[in-house]
Amino acid sequence: MSNFLLWLVGFVFVALPSTRFYRLKTLLLAACGVKVAKSARIVSSVKIVGTGELSIGDDTFIGHYVSIFCSPPGISIGSYVDIAPNVVIVNGTHQVDMDGLHTAGKGVCNRIIIEDGVWIGASATILTGVKIGKKSIIAAGAVVNSDVPEYSISAGVPAKTIKTWNPVTKMWLKSNG
Ligand SMILES: CC(C)(COP(=O)(O)OP(=O)(O)OC[C@H]1O[C@@H](n2cnc3c(N)ncnc32)[C@H](O)[C@@H]1OP(=O)(O)O)[C@@H](O)C(=O)NCCC(=O)NCCS
């Protein structure tokens, strides 16, 4: 992914209507090196920064003011994923350095994987190295710093599983605690 081309394309994005011209937007992102499916719907205010490998699957929707900070190795967003406004996905962090001048020490980046059918609620933050299992829900405002099981709902800071879907009974089971 080219950070410079993403920056240039950003000027075109802001000139386009928010929730139209989706095909044009995927073509522009593909030209920047994003592996994006033709049917993905990216809202104009989405901000993508970085040089990592970013993939976005079929019929995935990325909503208003979502920020994706994608350093190598990258971020994988599956198909049929819905990402609500103001979500932040950032796969980089720092080692804590209590000896140097900067407390944010050596940079560390790990792949984030968001599997098919995930719904991420408004203003959630997805941190480095996590895998969000398919058809799971991340509640609004959650901070995800560890893996999320498939077919579950996670909420809070840090995000914890609050419910799990039982495919046999077709009912939600509340988690203890
Ligand atoms: C998670 C969500 C889908 C609700 O799921 P639900 O199965 O209906 O959950 P419930 O309302 O039954 O709540 C279950 C528990 O989780 C808590 N909870 C629900 N949403 C929460 C949130 N965002 N953060 C923290 N806790 C939350 C409830 O307070 C409740 O706690 P309790 O059992 O102690 O009373 C919903 O709250 C949410 O976050 N939706 C996202 C909305 C959004 O982002 N909209 C933008 C457009 S897509």
Structural commentary:
The protein has helices spanning 3-15, 22-31; strands at 35-36, 41-42, 47-49, 53-56, 61-62, 67-69, 74-77, 82-83, 88-90, 92-96, 104-109, 112-114, 119-120, 125-126, 131-132, 137-138, 143-144, 152-155, 160-166, 171-174. The chain has one domain (3-174): Hexapeptide repeat proteins (UDP N-Acetylglucosamine Acyltransferase, domain 1, 3 Solenoid), CATH 2.160.10. The longest helix is centred in the N-terminal third of the chain and has 13 residues, at 3-15. The relative contact order is 0.11. By secondary structure, it is mainly β. Helices cover 13% and strands 36% of the residues. Helix 1 packs antiparallel against helix 2. It has an 8-stranded mixed β-sheet with strand order 2-5-8-13-16-18-19-20. It has a 5-stranded parallel β-sheet with strand order 1-4-7-12-15, with helices on one face. Strands 3-6-9-14-17 form a 5-stranded parallel β-sheet.
